[in-house]
Amino acid sequence: MSLYKESGVDIEEGYRSVSMIKEHAKRTQIPGVLNSIGSFAGMFELGQYKNPVIVSGTDGVGTKLEIAIRMKKYDTVGIDCVAMCVNDILCHGAKPIFFLDYIGCGKLEAEVAADLVKGVSEGCLQSNCALLGGETAEMPGFYKHGDYDIAGFAVGVVEKDEIIDGSDIENGDILIGIESSGVHSNGYSLVRKLIPDINIDFNGAPIGETLLTPTRIYVKPVLDILQKVKVRGMAHITGGGFIENIPRMFKKNQRAVINKASYKVPAIFKYLMECGVKEEEMYNTYNMGIGYIMCVAKEDAAKVMSLLKEYDLNSYEIGYVEEGEGVCLK
């Protein structure tokens, strides 16, 4: 066998894919980008910082991709990929500056790869960061034909004296919960087990459409708030739900007291409970309608919620901080 194509790798399709992807990446260029996709590495100039700290995070989309593949809808999961990374580094006050992605597949189809990167570029636009580069790997015999995987990592920057690490949190501080857009990108192994038929009706449309709603990106409103309010801690509610993620913002012997009745749990989570998941497990797996939490002094809570409203985001005073450990749901 002498031709790479005969082994299952189509170089020409790869070239076509790169050509299509470049157009999506070009949309995300921001000040600081020094070169374009096609070089061996991406370059970004930090600019004027007194004592910059680089903050990075990496993640993938997980088995939510299987729903995208079954629905043949590939242009939203890239948003999830970006969201999972930028929302994480945002928790420490970092401004995302660039993102790189990785796509793996068994048989490269340029249109599918371009749709995946279209979603990535949309996520970068929502985060005001640049898609600086990436990799598309065609691996026949490793991935099945039709299978795709996508992951990535974000790099952000924050002044060292502006890092948010939870050390300023005081007992009595208020927890502001910001609405999620749905299930986001966690717990889909359980979702797929509970809902094997993604075409069943849910609120007048196939439930798969609801399940593919992309993860909300909180970068722009949160960075705006950080310029106007002293935020003491933040948490991105991902895998592990309330129980695992909220305590990650604390550095001292503190716990979160959450009032479950402080907001309305979205219908998709109620449906999952009707499928047989206990409420306790739901709060230990899913975001339950709250995708991001900000911890502020009591006197700042109303201002934060007002600022979020300017971004058309619903937010709720969902609880407070007290001495202890973990999370108390009541």
Automatic annotation (TrEMBL):
<dbReference type="GO" id="GO:0046084">
    <property type="term" value="P:adenine biosynthetic process"/>
</dbReference>
<dbReference type="GO" id="GO:0004637">
    <property type="term" value="F:phosphoribosylamine-glycine ligase activity"/>
</dbReference>
<dbReference type="Pfam" id="PF02769">
    <property type="entry name" value="AIRS_C"/>
</dbReference>
<dbReference type="InterPro" id="IPR036921">
    <property type="entry name" value="PurM-like_N_sf"/>
</dbReference>
<dbReference type="GO" id="GO:0006189">
    <property type="term" value="P:'de novo' IMP biosynthetic process"/>
</dbReference>
<dbReference type="InterPro" id="IPR016188">
    <property type="entry name" value="PurM-like_N"/>
</dbReference>
<dbReference type="GO" id="GO:0005829">
    <property type="term" value="C:cytosol"/>
</dbReference>
<keyword id="KW-0436">Ligase</keyword>
<feature type="domain" description="PurM-like N-terminal">
    <location>
        <begin position="53"/>
        <end position="158"/>
    </location>
</feature>
<keyword id="KW-0547">Nucleotide-binding</keyword>
<protein>
    <recommendedName>
        <fullName>Phosphoribosylformylglycinamidine cyclo-ligase</fullName>
        <ecNumber>6.3.3.1</ecNumber>
    </recommendedName>
</protein>
<dbReference type="InterPro" id="IPR004733">
    <property type="entry name" value="PurM_cligase"/>
</dbReference>
<dbReference type="InterPro" id="IPR010918">
    <property type="entry name" value="PurM-like_C_dom"/>
</dbReference>
<dbReference type="GO" id="GO:0004641">
    <property type="term" value="F:phosphoribosylformylglycinamidine cyclo-ligase activity"/>
</dbReference>
<dbReference type="GO" id="GO:0005524">
    <property type="term" value="F:ATP binding"/>
</dbReference>
<feature type="domain" description="PurM-like C-terminal">
    <location>
        <begin position="171"/>
        <end position="326"/>
    </location>
</feature>
<comment type="pathway">
    <text>Purine metabolism; IMP biosynthesis via de novo pathway; 5-amino-1-(5-phospho-D-ribosyl)imidazole from N(2)-formyl-N(1)-(5-phospho-D-ribosyl)glycinamide: step 2/2.</text>
</comment>
<dbReference type="InterPro" id="IPR036676">
    <property type="entry name" value="PurM-like_C_sf"/>
</dbReference>
<keyword id="KW-0963">Cytoplasm</keyword>
<keyword id="KW-0067">ATP-binding</keyword>
<keyword id="KW-0658">Purine biosynthesis</keyword>
<comment type="similarity">
    <text>Belongs to the AIR synthase family.</text>
</comment>
<dbReference type="Pfam" id="PF00586">
    <property type="entry name" value="AIRS"/>
</dbReference>
